[in-house]
Design a protein that fits this description.
- It is a single chain.
- This protein is an alpha+beta fold and 554 residues long.
- It has four domains: 216 residues, Glycerol uptake facilitator protein; 91 residues, Alpha-Beta Plaits, CATH 3.30.70.1350; 92 residues, GMP Synthetase, Chain A, domain 3 (2-Layer Sandwich), CATH 3.30.300; 79 residues, Alpha-Beta Plaits (2-Layer Sandwich).
- It contains 17 helices and 16 strands.
- The C terminus is likely disordered.
């Protein structure tokens, strides 16, 4: 019954081969399967082209290497030698294929060890993760190449297309990966070569049998075919199963990556001026650990991170933990600071109005504060409208002396009169000192001279006590700057700290009480808070290891 089916396929697909045709085809296959100087020369040239094409990440160059690679010829010889029981042809073909394989891998290792080698790109990585698609492509290529040889009506271009099957590029990838000691990738690339070899061999043997190049008129002839090629078929099936699983994992990972990026991006871009820069993730103990790097004009606090994490848990995976790293980023045009959301412009009209408003605020404050020597605006932070309907604006400035409440009141009045919008202004002064090679610029009487003796001991005691108390009150807080001096009968201490939230009267009172007990009972404390910290959904972090999560390949 099977023999009758093969005869019907032969009548529909092939013309009747004469003894002369069979001799011609047999001779051609034996010729391209025999080791020769031409074979080794083409193997070297194709390997060199493939290796440098892979390093250059050039698909066109890799295709050029495929077209001149001679390693598919011996595979046809192996298929024909097994089909006809020609041990001499089988031996020559195996020797050619083995020597060509070792030559290609060895030459690629040498190329990979040459200095000035670039990082591996997508062309190499794609050949380290074979899937079921590669099996199907190799089977089709084997059929095409063998069919072109046994059917004289097919044009001479088709064998070249068949030779384009990935034989040399995987071997070149094996050598390049070995040269950097990446054995996992080298194994993956070698598996791709092995799958191609077995698939082409089996497909070519089937074509030879159907075409009549190999006689299978008797039922036992078909049994002989499967006995000789059954092992190849079984190996192909097993590898096909594993490669199907690999394909499934790749599809699942890409879907997960796209979904994570999409969800986080949608949540981030609701903050004016913020956009998602990078996403990294990995699985640890059943938890999806996600690290999102966000370019934003203001930090994402723990509550904002918790909200985004909740959306991820609902739409992506329940057991997800998110950490957001906020990178302060500001956009500006020739008129000053602007706020642009790059991703898909949500609520375009509202954002345009917001950008215009904040740009006007930035220009006005830059002009007015520029009149104060050594002062410049570095950031404008918009906050939600308060219960009185006022727009809350925080201006961050670098200045040698703090901007006092009277100056803030004047600035606020000017903004209200000019913009005709009720504005509540806060100015956060970041104290800075500029100097040339002779003196401090914008020198002020509040600057302390170098300390020594009892004054130095007092300063170090005060600073250490403040740092210890800060850690007790809020471990994520940091002391940035410290100023103090006598005023009337009090010792006024002004400190600037960085913390996840602004210290209020209760926190200041706790700090003041501790300093009065441990340092000087005359101390009166003023704390200026610069809000900012790394945050997770659980709480603020004193530090975060950025290597915890891997980079997500889009």
């Amino acid at each position: 019954m099977l023999t009758d089916l093969w005869k019907k396929l032969h009548l529909k697909l092939f013309y009747e081969m004469t003894p002369a045709d069979r001799t011609r085809v047999y001779t051609e296959i034996a010729t391209i399967s025999t080791p020769s100087r031409t074979f080794y020369l083409l193997a070297c040239i194709s390997t060199i082209i493939a290796a440098y094409g892979l390093l250059a990440n050039s698909t066109a160059v890799v295709i050029g290497a495929m077209l001149i690679a001679p390693l598919m010829g011996p595979i046809f010889g192996i298929a024909l030698g097994l089909s006809n029981g020609d041990n001499n042809l089988l031996k020559n073909s195996l020797i050619s294929e083995l020597q060509g394989m070792l030559l290609a891998i060895g030459l690629a290792i040498i190329i990979g060890m040459i200095p000035l080698r670039p990082d591996f790109g997508s062309e190499i990585i794609a050949r380290t993760q074979p899937t079921i698609y590669d099996v199907i492509i190799a089977l089709a290529s084997g059929v095409a190449g063998a069919y072109a040889m046994v059917n004289k009506r097919i044009g001479p271009a088709l064998p070249g297309v068949a030779i384009s099957t990935a034989i040399v590029p995987p071997l070149a990838t094996v050598g390049l990966c070995i040269s950097i000691g990446n054995w996992d990738w080298a194994l993956g690339a070698f598996l791709l070569f092995l799958v191609n070899l077995l698939a082409i061999e089996f497909a070519a043997a089937a074509v030879y049998a159907i075409s009549g190049l190999v006689k299978l008129d008797r039922p036992e002839g078909l049994e002989t075919f499967f006995r000789r090629f059954g092992l190849s078929l079984v190996i192909l099936l097993i590898m096909g199963i594993f490669m199907t699983q690999t394909l499934g994992r790749i599809v699942t990972e890409r879907t997960l990556a796209e979904k994570v990026r999409e969800v986080i991006s949608e949540q981030v871009r609701t903050t004016v001026g913020a956009r998602l820069s990078e996403v990294r993730y990995e699985r640890q103990d059943g938890t999806l650990q996600v690290m999102a790097v966000v370019l934003t004009p203001q930090e994402f606090d723990s509550q904002r991170v918790a909200d985004i994490e909740s959306v991820l848990q609902q739409e992506v995976e329940p057991n997800t933990r998110l950490v957001v790293r906020s990178l302060l980023s500001r956009d500006a045009d020739r008129n000053g600071q602007v706020f642009i959301a790059e991703e898909e412009r949500l609520m375009q009209t509202r954002l345009a109005e917001e950008n215009m408003f904040l740009g006007n605020v930035s220009r006005m404050l830059t002009t007015e504060l520029g009149k104060v020597p050594g002062t410049r605006v570095v950031e404008i932070q918009p906050d939600p409208i308060n219960e009185n309907g006022e727009r809350n604006i925080t201006a961050v400035v670098h200045t040698p002396t703090p901007i006092n409440p009277l100056q803030v009141e004047e600035l606020e009045e000017q903004l209200n009169n000019s913009l005709e919008v009720p504005i509540r202004l806060k100015v956060r002064s970041l104290l800075t000192r500029d100097a040339d090679n002779k003196q401090y610029i914008y020198e002020d009487s509040t600057w302390h001279k170098p300390l020594k003796g009892p004054e130095l001991v007092f300063h170090e005691t005060l600073e250490l006590t403040i740092k210890n108390q800060l850690y007790n009150q809020e471990p994520a807080a940091q002391l940035l700057e410290l100023y103090y001096g006598e005023k009337d009968e009090d010792l006024l201490v002004l400190m600037q700290i960085r913390a996840p939230y602004s210290f209020g009267p209760d926190e200041v009172n706790e700090m003041e009480t501790t300093l009065q007990k441990q340092v000087d009972e005359r101390i009166k404390v003023i704390i200026r808070t610069q809000v900012g910290a790394d945050a997770s959904a659980d709480w603020y972090l004193s530090g975060y290891d950025e290597n915890l999560a891997k980079v997500l390949v889009p």
